[in-house]
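Appendix C reproduces, verbatim, an entry submitted by the partner laboratory led by Prof. M.T., so that reviewers can inspect both the input and the predicted structure.
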Amino acid sequence: MECVDFNSGELPAPAFSIESCLRALHQNKRVVREEGLKDLAAALEGFVSADDYRYDHYEYEQAMDRCFYFLRSGSATERKDAYRAIGLYALTVGAKAEVLVLDRLFEVDRLSGMVPSSPSDAERAVAAIGCVAAATLACGKRPADAKRTLKAIWEVMEEAGAAAIPQVLAAAMSAWTVVLPAARDTVRMTPFVLIAKLLKADDAPVRMSAGEALAVCIELNILPRQPLPPRWGYDKRAESRPGDMPLLQSRVSELAFPEEKHAHKNEHAEEITLFRQIDDLLKRNKQQIEDLEKIKNNERPEESNGPCVKVPKRWVKLVQLNFLRQYIGECVDTHYNLNLPLFRDKLGLTRAAGCGVEEEDLPAHEKKQLRKDRDRQMSLAVKRDRQNKTTI
């Protein structure tokens, strides 16, 4: 379904009917069911307004029940399209959905859906990974929900079947990065060893996804540290060596400033730009750590000339916005303008944030709106905690 420009003077396409879509999803012919899934996904791409959803929410819930049925017993194409429809439904409705999207995804197939059975199954696996990441972003209510998704995606990346397919590996690494900010206490869950390994991969999208993961970790102050003493429930796979950070910095520098014979190739231009930004971020972070150490020792920190490359100041927002652009597709602007509960209230994604602008640099009216939304979210959280205490 194409986005309609109401200022163009063109007549809109025929209205989407959820009832006809439901009838198609219950047909015996597989071709008709696949068309119904595509129509459902196309409607959700164009964003279903709150009024339309309120009026037809039972029908949409029935459509989601049918999609979950296809995840269990549908064909490969039906499963792929069902994952996409579920992910778009989660982004559209969010935590207001009566269908517990995230819990049901883990009940259906915690890992089997995200691990490809063969190279030809890569597209379905990528759809499953994107669906879980989108559902966690939109429907996750607690940090524990994000940690559950992080652990599942990490296990997918360790599977031999997924690791052998660059397309799946890059999608898993990107999904892991998008979900990371929603979790807490993730230092021991951060696979720095795996990130270092992926930075040496032959496939450029895999290297770039690993670089973005490293940048988000640095921005969230998640750094390789000395392994903590073993204790009950401690996962030894999450241990990081003290020497990981210099190795990561060295590899990022190699990718940011490659040999001359590779530096002028068009296919490497985007990757070089990305890693130069990450390299500058690592250098600034290292300088800040050294300055703090000097201040602790009553020494005066050295003055720096500043970064030589324009570095995005908000990697978390940038990565999340890029993920949503790729996942939703051409109608992402419609979601951005209408889906304010997700884009503005929950994720805090604004056009300025996506361009790397700090809150202090925003226009006065947008800064006031962000602070108002933040205060409202804090009031709701306090009210929710009081209600939970009274019910206990």
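Confidence is low (pLDDT under 50) at residues 1-14, 226-243, 304-313, 352-358. Additional entries are available on request from the coordinating office.
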